[in-house]
Amino acid sequence: MSNNFVAPRFFAQAIPPYTEGMRIGLLGGSFNPPHQAHRAISQFALKRLQLDRVWWLVTPGNPLKENGNLHELGERMQAARDVANDSRIEVSCLESVIRTRYTIDTINTLRRRLSGLRFVWIMGADNLAQFHRWQHWRRIADLVPIAVIDRPPQSFRALASPAAQALARYRLPENKAALLADQPAPAWVFLTGLKLDLSSTRLRNPDGSWKGTK
């Protein structure tokens, strides 16, 4: 974890508006580029998990990905706001402000500084399939409930993954998804029914530029 001190005013500027007790979904990613699947996943989670807000945490870079073609943070932030187009979805550059590279550090910071909020980490089934490769993934699962959004054809690979197997006894039935934000971690749910096949990778040209843009 970074030991760099971050002044409270800078932290506050990177945090979207909230009120105590809110149920907040956290969707982290490069958003390179953001697309309609990010929006659809967020709206799906808002409904199924009974969340008040979803925060998009636009990361400076993903430790598990090649970042050579990563667009500037400001460009990705503005594009994310344009795509979100929903008052319940907020876009944040928190990880850039607190200078974290790993999800565990981001969650630790949020839980420490915003203890009155109930967070749920949102990920796609493709991320569950490789969750065991994340830095301190077991600790992440111990800190915050997790909602996994099915992304066919990743379903079988995701549910057979080392992380899914290790956390199997903490999985909630899908019909209890609305209770997830109130559950003590570890707790997770696998949500089905969203049929979208979009990814940022498919929306990038070989040179890293975004398709449909100059």
Automatic annotation (TrEMBL):
EC number: 2.7.7.18
SUPFAM superfamilies in alphabetical order: Nucleotidylyl transferase
Domain of life: Bacteria
The entry's keywords: ATP-binding, NAD, Nucleotide-binding, Nucleotidyltransferase, Pyridine nucleotide biosynthesis, Transferase
InterPro entries hit by this protein: Cyt_trans-like, NadD/NMNAT, Rossmann-like_a/b/a_fold
Top-rank EC class of the record's enzyme: transferase
CDD domains membership: NMNAT
Any one biological process term the GO annotation gives: NAD+ biosynthetic process
A Pfam family reported for this protein in Swiss-Prot or TrEMBL: CTP_transf_like
Annotated family: Belongs to the NadD family.
Entry function: Catalyzes the reversible adenylation of nicotinate mononucleotide (NaMN) to nicotinic acid adenine dinucleotide (NaAD).
UniProt protein name: Probable nicotinate-nucleotide adenylyltransferase
